[in-house]
Structure formats: structure tokens, C-alpha cells
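Memo to structure team: turn this sequence into C-alpha cells by end of day. - J.P.
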Amino acid sequence: MGTSQRAEIRSGLARVLALMGLVGLLSAAGLACATPQVKSIVQVAQPAPGAAPAAPASATGWQTEAAQKAGIKLLQTFDASGPAAWDAQKHPLVFFTSNGPGYGGIPSKVKLPGLTVIDAKTKEVVASQWYDLKYGVEGADATASEPHSLGVSSDGQWIYLPAADPSAPADDRGRLLVIDAKTLKLRQVIGTQRLPHHSKILTPPDGRKLMLVYDFGGSGIYILDTKNDNKVVAVISDQDLGGRRYLAFPDTKHENIWITVRPSSGVEADGWVAVVSTKDWKEKKNYTVGRSPIWVTFTADGKYAYVDNGHDDSYHKIDILKGAVVGHARNGGSGPYGMALNWDETELWFISKGEGSHNRGKTVSYVDPIAMGRPKDEFYTGCIRGDHIYLYPDPQVNEMWLSCNSSFEVVVWDPVKKEVKARIPMPDGGSTHSGAFVRYTVDGSGQWKGEILYDHGGAQGATLAKRAELAAQAAKKSQ
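Reply from structure team:
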């Protein structure tokens, strides 16, 4: 029996035991972390007693022209000050992830949108918080408030968590919760037309500190200024792109946003990737790819982009300098969603969500992104409906973290040994989507400063620089 077969059997056993709730046996096998013992905290989204009602966003100047265009409103503002909800000195490197009700026929035990803070080194859950917006959502309807992502501002101050109000009109149900990362208290509730989908940092060369957010239809792609009360500074609509936009990713220098776009509903044709400048928010180029483009990831030197196609289990390679698609190959899994390059960029990993199919993916696969050709292999992880995959921001540790929204855990994958290294169950059995690795420092006066190392947009800052170094070394050795 080969190493990969043993790893798959071991991972399969771990998944069965986990679903049976036998966490103790998993721990003995060295696979699962301890059951989280953090206190479940719920914040009710109501103003403090005696507080004056919030002034209308239009009166405060918050509702910019771009916000009006997209139907985005500032609904509530809160005092988010107070003591820290967790200790950044004790836990300087953390992974923030969403924690919610689940969706698609596999609801979790959680009924509210929330978040979890994990110590990235020890894999200990250090804090968890849920947010009750008093929308009266009960039972299966709670899945309408499933957060499909979690974003963190570039300085680590703000967390952006999607939610929804199912009782509101269809074109006014989206809610984006802005949360203080230190206190885990609500700062703002921003209203959007549809449930917000993903969010990630956007830091253009001119120094602006922005957040790139988009929803499931409705408001489109909207850009928030994290240093100016999260005001909307720009909107990119489906009409601007000439199709149904899906996901969006900043390139390595954040000079452009790469947006996966599909033809209008009912049209059978290839989709494309639109490249939009962060200077003027105008489309400057596009690339035709498969019919279901989803994720985009980039080599650290910014020379190549990879785009996967969830419905036909393949990916495209784009030479950015030449401005051309230069390769198309199979990815080796079923319904790929998230992608991540390894440290020296000799492997491109995909998480199989079963997109466009059963939507119950449980594997990861990888390819040689340089030679392309046939996929290298596929491995069972038991990460049910995993959709996002993140490179741990330390090459010495060399892990990939998978968010598993229907097995209610984060699975830690070893890309060298090709096996599951650990499983981190979510507090109260909540669903997890997306997240961000953030490194914090605390100065003598107790002030926190955060640095995003890897988020939904891929490698950032020190992680991107280190990957560029290791990739260059690997390329030199291969010559």
C-alpha cells in the first residue's frame, strides 16, 4: 500500500469519526484539535440604552453617489470600543473565519451569522462571536444569513461579515456587518441589495486602503474606503461588464481587479475574465475562458494568472505580459472552486466543491502549473463542500487551510506528505466560509497593528514577497 493510499484511508477514517462526534479518538490519532471550549457570545444589534438614533446616511455624507447608484445604505452605527475580546500578544498570528448557519440542505447548529478567531500556530480557537440582528429568522430560514466569506481590513482593524434580512424586500435584503477585530463588537450595519458574497483587501499603488466587496447579484462590486468610515468610493455593475459577474480578485500589485464574468442568463457561450483598473474603475482588457470561470490566482511575480472553470473541471493559464491565454488543461477534481499555489509555485492546488454538480466535494487535487498536461493526483480530505483554500503564511510550517462549510470545520492539509494534518471543528458546530491570516503586533501603549498575510484575494505582503523569492529560486534550479 502506497503512502498516498494510507493517507487517504487515514483521512477517510478521520472524517467518519468526526461525523460520529468521536473527537477524542481523532485527537489520539493526531488529527483533530480539541473541541473548542470558548464561551459562545451573542451581540444583539441594538443601540446602547439612551443613545440617540443614528442620523440618516444621507445627512452625514456617508451615502456617496456611488452608494446611491448601487442602492447601498448605512443602516446602523454602534460604539465598538471596549476591552479586547482576545489577547493579540498571546496569539499574534490568527486566522479569522466565518461561523454561520450553513446552507444548501446541510444546515449547521448555529442560527446566527458569526465569526471565529483561531490561533494559527496552536490551532486553538481563542474567540467566537455571533450577531443577532433581530430579524426573527428561525430554523431552516436561518441559512439565508449564512456568511459566505469574512474579510479583514489591511490594518487588521475591521472585519467584514455578510448577513441578510430575509424579511426585507427582495432587492434590499443584504447586510454587511463591520466589526471591530479587537473587541469583536459591531461598528456598522451596511445595507446592500443582495446577500454580500466575498470581501478582501484592495491596496492600490497610490496608497488607498480599500475593501473589495461583492454580492450575489444586486449591488454589484463595491469598493469601500476603510479609512473613511467605509464609504462607497466606486461600483462596478454587471452593465459595466456586459455579463453576469461572479468573483473578483486584485492582481499582485493591486493595479487591476480581475473579474470572472459569464454570459447573460440563458446564453450558451464562453465566459471571460474582465480586467478593471483601480485608477478609474474602467475595463482595460478581457480574456475568453471556459463557460464557468470562478477563481483567479497569480504567480508572485505577476507574470501569470490562472483561472479555474467549475463546471468543466479545468483551468486556463494566462500570460499577462503577452496578454494571451497560453494553456488549458484538466484540474483533476470535480467542480473546482478555490485555488492556491504552493511556496515555490511548482504546484497549483484546487479544492473540489462539486460546483455545478453535486455540490458535496470532499477532495483536493493538484497540477504542475508550469508544464500543465495531465493532473498530478487527487486526495480525499473529508472536507465536505470545501470551497476556499489558503496557504499558511510560513514556508517552514508549509500547510494549506481548507474552509469546509458542510463538515463545519477547518481542515489543515499537508501538501508535502499529501495528507490531512489536523481538523479544527467550529464552535457550536457552525459553518465556515473563507477567512484571513493576520499577524498582530502590540506596542507599549497597548495599540494593535495588524498585517494581512493571506486572505480571499491570495498571498499578501510578506507572504507574497517570500513566495516570489522561493519561486525564483525554484525556477533557477530547473534551468
